[in-house]
Amino acid sequence: MRIFTVDSFTDRPFRGNPAAVCLLDETVPDEWMQAVAAEMRHSETAFVPAPRDDQEDGPRPLRWFTPAVEVDLCGHATLAAAHVLYSLGGSGRLEFSTRSGVLSTEQTADGLIAMNFPATRATAVDAPEGLVEALGVKPVWVGRSRFDLLVEVESAQAVRSAAPDFERLAAVDARGVIVTATADDGDRDGDGDDDGDRDDNRNGGRPDYVSRFFAPRVGVPEDPVTGSAHCVLSPYWSAKSGRDALVGAQLSERGGTIRTTLRGDRVELAGQAVTIWSGELHV
């Protein structure tokens, strides 16, 4: 079976968020997929049937595994899977059957891949016990979505400088924690760093908001660029800004950008991806 590593939400190798994509030639046990994901050690590995000449109509099954657990929704690994299928001759609208319902992707005129995901709005809650101490930042607002906690802080610099205690954060009851703030001039190039010297990344350009995502509870201390987190960030920042179309920059060490467009109870996430290597599994 063929396997790929793809950097998602970037137009440059070794940036964005790496995901593995395994093209399944046969039905395999869940334990085998979990073992492959643990071997790959990316934040997620996507498993999708290999394209065939006799491909049946309808959504393709798609599943995502971290090195530790299966997850219900993953944006960057979906982008990686679509990128691989398009690079192997796929075209038009691709549909995937997942734990979060049917998700679809399409290639846009400007070379991006747009994904249609459910919006997962956050509602205000009191900060859970231990959250503030584990993050080491002062929240302006705390909310909870279907999967994660959303924490707005006072500035983009506070997002950049956050240094969580991952052992304590893993004890907080949530898949992950999103820390976010309005973008500042240090993020004007949209590539996730502070150099401000280029604006050639077609994933975005100048961002409207910034974020980081921490998920030690599911084996991912910090995820470089998190599509599913932007299903929360898009409706949150669209409500605050009054605009449906925004650009988010994730300020991890690798950095990456996501174009988001809120469409009712759905979010369109758009970005590019780069294949790093491909090979064959021998087990």
From TrEMBL:
Catalytic site: E44
Region: Disordered, residue numbers: 182-209
Annotated GO CC locations: cytoplasm
GO function term, MF aspect, one: isomerase activity
Top-level division of the source organism's lineage: Bacteria
InterPro entries attached to this UniProt entry: Phenazine_PhzF-like
Keyword DNA-binding attributed: no
Keyword terms, alphabetized: Isomerase
Chain intervals with Acidic residues compositional bias: 184-198
The family this protein is said to belong to: Belongs to the PhzF family.
UniProt name for this protein: Isomerase
